[in-house]
C-alpha cells in the first residue's frame, strides 16, 4: 500500500476530491496546514501599509491506495489541483509514502 499526500491550495480541494471520487478513490483525509515553498509567502496591503505574509494557508489531502493505482491517482491530483494550464508556483506538492499496514480500530 502507498499513501499519497498532496499539499494543495484550499480553493482546489473540492475539485480534487470530486475528481478522486469519480475515479473511485473516495476514502480521503483532509487537514489544514500553513507553510510556503518556492513562492516564499506573499506581500499584502492593509490600511495603506505593506506587510509580508510568510505562512500561506494550504490543505493536506491524504489517500491510501494500492501500488498499482499510484500513477492514476497522481495524474488525477496533478490535473485537478493546477490553477493554470501548466501549473503555477504555489499550486502544491505531492508526496508518496510507503504504508506497512492499515489496521482497522
What is the fold's blueprint, element by element?
Layout (H helix, E strand, L loop, with lengths): L1 E7 L4 H10 L6 E7 L6 E5 L2 E5 L2 E10 L4 H12 L10 E7 L7
Antiparallel strand pairs: 1-5, 1-6, 2-5, 3-4
Helix pairs in contact: 1-2
**Any idea what the radius of gyration is?**
16 Å
Distance between the termini: 18 Å
Q: Name the helix and strand elements from N-terminus to C-terminus, one letter apiece.
A: EHEEEEHE
Helix content: 10-25%
Strand content: 35-45%
Number of helices: 2
The rough form would be described as elongated
Using the coordinates above, name the CATH class.
Answer: Alpha Beta
What is the name of the CATH architecture? 2-Layer Sandwich
What is the structural class?
Answer: alpha+beta
Predict the CATH topology.
Alpha-Beta Plaits
Largest sheet: 4 strands, antiparallel
Spatial order of strands in the largest sheet: 2-5-1-6
Mean pLDDT: 88
Residue ranges: pLDDT <50 for 5 or more in a row? none
Amino acid at each position: 500500500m502507498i499513501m499519497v499526500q498532496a499539499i494543495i491550495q484550499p480553493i482546489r480541494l473540492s475539485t480534487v476530491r470530486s475528481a478522486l471520487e469519480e475515479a473511485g478513490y473516495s476514502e480521503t483525509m483532509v487537514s489544514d496546514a500553513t507553510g510556503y515553498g518556492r513562492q516564499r509567502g506573499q506581500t499584502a496591503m492593509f490600511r495603506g501599509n505593506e506587510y509580508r505574509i510568510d505562512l500561506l494557508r494550504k490543505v493536506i489531502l491524504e489517500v491510501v491506495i494500492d501500488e498499482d493505482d499510484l500513477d492514476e491517482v497522481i495524474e488525477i491530483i496533478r490535473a485537478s489541483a493546477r490553477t493554470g494550464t501548466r501549473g503555477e508556483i504555489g499550486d502544491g506538492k505531492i508526496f508518496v509514502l510507503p504504508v506497512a499496514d492499515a489496521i482497522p480500530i
